[in-house]
Queue: 3 jobs
Job 1
Amino acid sequence: MADSVAERAADERAAEAVAERLVAAGRVAGRKLSHSLREATVGELLADLGGLAPDPDEPGDVYGNGVVERLERRVAELLGTEDAAFFPTGTMAQQIALRCWAGRTGNPVVALHPMSHPERWEGGALSVVSGLRTVHPTGEPRQPAASEVAGLPEPFGTLMLELPLRDAGFLLPTWEELSALVDTARERDAVVHFDGARLWESTVHFGRTLPEITALADSVYVSFYKSLGGLSGAALAGSASLVEEARVWRHRYGGQIFRQFPAALSALAGLERELPRLPSYVAKARAVAAALSSALAAAPGVPWFRVNPEVPHTHQFQVWLPYDADRLTEAGVRLAEETGTMLFRRWAPDGPPGLSMTEVEVTGPALSWTDADVTEATAAFVARL
């Protein structure tokens, strides 16, 4: 028992050391595909925040007024909804949205994918905190089909769709598939909620505007720190009556925070700076994914790989390789430390034994990369395995 505890402690220390090296290498890397949210220092964040206030003499927000209200109006305008409410976390926003819908429909059952965020990353809060129950249209690592939703053997009050489905490879349905899913939910007398943490970048794949996408749903959650680079925070958008009720529950859940201007200012900046750039990131991600596939196919000693999806639906995608995760992470860290090029960050054994996966995000720093740059970096990475 003591040996196992000591071994776990040693493993944790080793993992922390690698994480620190990864952050340090990423901070000084001259070439990388994206900025990591973990690499900014407090001083850098404060310096950036200081330049975001259009009027430094504006009074600070108090319990959600001022700049927070300005952010809420901007989100509702962008999404084409009647109203939107700011939340400190997306977990809280979605818990409250689904709870509100359970009360309104009289049905506490939520149909969603087992790989969706509430099922995998929220500690069972849907049932433990909100008293809801879930059913799964499919267990396959893809978006559900309308026929699978239609075939659920029991009534459900809400269909929740994660757009894109991150853990399956940032996958989106086609526009026709999404419309069919929504129509099927309506036929089952259910409402539709979109987990749109990364909805901002989904317009390219769908070929539709944000208001056209959100018009399909009864409520939508969006994140400010993932694709937009904000400090933190989320919003729940929908009808005026739903958002009004959600604000009541936000207070009950402890989300009525006295002052939130740092998160609100950074979110507004993200909407202005990053949102217009996301289509260019999606286009570049497709080029990077194609170059990675060609480079890995030509790399000596790599018996198998997968870029998932082959053509990315957004500016993020997965890469799978048949090596130990620690070995792959170490190779990426060494590449960054020795050459100043950060190709991959952390890998995880998220699949069958012997396979590891990493997520690739393509943002501003990647726009200057050529296909030859990707090929060169991939060869240098493989050489360090």
Job 2
Amino acid sequence: MLSQKIIISIGLIFLTHCFGKSNKETHRLEHEARIADKMVVDHADLLRTNQGFRNLTRAGVPQKRVVGVISAVSATFGLLKGIADNVDFSRVCVIGFKNLGNRKLVDPTWYLSYGIIREALPRYLPAGEAGVFTFEKTGYSTAGTAGVLTYTVAGTNHQIAVYWSVPFFYGINYNELHVQVWSGAKANEALYNSMEADEEKLTVSNSGHWLSASGWGITVHAAMTNAAKASLLVEVEFNITTPNEIFG
């Protein structure tokens, strides 16, 4: 009987290794990222149907590089991919950072190991809003874009940290993603190296696009497409209250 249980356990481990974990198969963001990998964006339709995309254009003309704030409802993989399509460099990571909590996200910091961003990140993201950030490779360099950014939950010392890497050479390298919840952290080389080396970091592939993290009442879900012009969607959820907020 014991030997049968051992055989069954080994079989389940083998199937999990071959086909991926079930939570990655069923999570909504995993599903949406896989669809986005095969999506062909109709920019005219996106301009007509997505208010956030329209708000990020200039008089209806899509911009090549976008940094802005829109309604969280409008921040979809379709919107991110539509923005990435317009960038005239071959390696891009467009990040949608959705604040689904009950406080502002403030005090952004960022560190880039490779690549550039043309504008500063928005100083704060109101509850129910999303930041959209375009990171790209540098000019004629043979490196892609890789970095880390943080936002702090207002009134706390807790940060949401996002790491990404979009390599220049595919085949030996792949897109990478990591999210963590920190206390007292700031985006710098040390944080970048820590998240890059962490074994929980996700190598984006057909077997997984999504991961999550939580701490101090904050939950972060993120998913990334498996493309040279990558879309990375982050959802931050929390409901933080103080005794004064509860009792007045």
Job 3
Amino acid sequence: MAKPDVSDSAPHPAAEEKLLSTPGMIPAFVLVLLAFGGWALLLPVIPLHVVRSGGGDVLAGAATGVFMGVTVLTQVFTPKFMRRFGYRLVLGVGAVLLSGPAALYLLGANAPVILGVSGVRGAGFGLLTVAGSALVAELAPASKLGRATSLIGLAVGIAEAGFLPTGLYTYEHFGVIVPALTATALAVVGIGAAMRVPTIFPAPLGSDHAAEVRGLALAGRLAPAMLIMISVAMAFGVISTFLPPTLDDVAGSGAGVAGLALALVGAMVVAGRTAAGARADKFGPGDYIPVGMAAAALGVAGIGALALAHAPTWMFLIAAVIFGFGFGAIQNESLMGAFQRLPKSQLGTASAGWNISFDSGTGLGAIVLGLFAFAGYPTMFFIAAGICVVIGTAVTLYWRRVAANARRTDG
């Protein structure tokens, strides 16, 4: 099997301008930005709010876990919703569900409020992430799919770099009321953007004359990319949920440094995706996976080591930079792989698979690894690093074997 043509995957200023001029592309970009912005704004805030309100680490992890669990469940069905109701309605409903209920967090930090609101918001996030990513790929010409993927990455990076620290900063200075109401206000912007999306539906299955990929064949095509995404997302779930309370232990009050660290993660996600895309131009997708996984593992392990040593808080920023670069590289590699492994009529399925791996990994990191909080916060970070090493090594060896077999077949 020859490597797919990825010569269009690197960003090019003139091409990006033409891509953005495609009808519906800017509203789609805004919706992806708002989806991840609404998610990022409260992602570290709610667990920290729970811990500081006396709710404990288990409820803090469960808040992220329930959000992500409902997100994944919704993502499974979103391709069907898109085919039945179209992109505009699905995106509009998603914007309302994600941001609208956020103000209800003001009712208290008890389990029914925290978990109930998180579940409803998770459903909205699931709709927005799958439909938004698929819409960008649907609107883009086939020759610009790589650039469209980079556009999604840019929206995610901006959201993470801007909204993660904003949420923590406003919480530290004004309490939960400001980030919660800000998240609610995003619903209005999201509805406005959704109304500007063209009235289109996903391409019918089989419309591109390619057989629908189903069952074990579908799982086989998406599994490697999903596994590496899950592993680095688990590390991100631990960092985003437990870095603020970890720094509270280290420095007394760590929300400010944690916010800056998460902003650096978001900024380096863009850098990592750009580097991976440039590498893919020359060598095809998948070649940058060892670098990305190594950086992610080193970054999250570094956080654990620094926490164990009660190191100066500024050193955590270095670890965040390293992790963010690896996280971004793997995002780009896995998303490109998912889109390229399925026909265009299954873009929604590819988008769902990638988003499910991202969000389920984030939730698993918060809940499953959060159970090890009794052994100390550093333990969670070390386990996350180990998972990255094991999964990254296994997938890299598998893909190299597949590539070697393909070369022998082509030869």
